[in-house]
Amino acid sequence: EREFDDRDMNMAELVAGRLAADLDREVLLKSETQSRGILRQLEGASRMQLEQLPKIAPLVEGWQIAGWTSQGSAVGGALHDWWMHDDGRLFVAAAQGLDGGIEGALCAASLRATVRGLAQGPIMPNAVLEQASQALWSASAGDQFASLFCAAIEPNEGRCDFAAAGQMGAILIGRLGNERLIAPSLSLGVEPSAKYLPREFKIEPSQLMIVVNDGVHEARDGEGRPWTMSGVADAVQGHLDASAETIAELIRDRLEAYTFDRKAADRTVLVVKRELANARSPL
Predict the structure, then answer these.
(1) Could you tell me which residue, 113 or 28, shows the higher pLDDT?
(2) pLDDT value of position 127
(3) H-state helical runs in the chain
């Protein structure tokens, strides 16, 4: 047993403070190392998600296709896609996992793989949606939902068979007027036996189809006013002779100028344009 004077107590407090500072520093260094590791993983996932988006449009005579997708964070749930079927049909798709971030990215990756796999056979877009919905419902705990637009275009005739689920937006734009193609409907993954109606229309020469997710057509300005599909159509009126790629970028520019986002949203735009018969002929 011994007594501690003030000098001893001061020394003990000094040592304790030094030990506490060292421990805090170790915790901070460990936390920073873990954060850097997570950041590197997110950057890698972001690059992988970006690389999965189509970069080169299929060469289909008389048709142009373009699109872009931007995520609200490093990764997200928006996507667009296109591919040629063995039977000569041009398939296009745009989708949105209803959760953003990592959960949305996982949902989008799963949905893309499912849709691509299903659409390899002689199948119609509404059947693709129904089977994709069942797959999403079966593979989740009942908390993963998605919006999806899928269309199969017969290039020679211009016939477009399509189906949509959730909050996607699609509009047909031409010189004689515009036509909204879909309305909000049941999202994928809500019911295992959900049915989606097959729809059909014809894309005439010089007409274009624009498909967007809800991050685009529900974007709001500084006063809270939504952009809507009418805003999408207004953005391209007067530019119908432009290429599909130019129109897609024009929508992006107008959208960025219009929106005032407190929280960035996942957004995707898909443009399909049918050219005039002599559009590529020399003058």
Answers:
(1) 113
(2) 93
(3) 6-52, 101-118, 125-139, 214-217, 228-236, 244-258
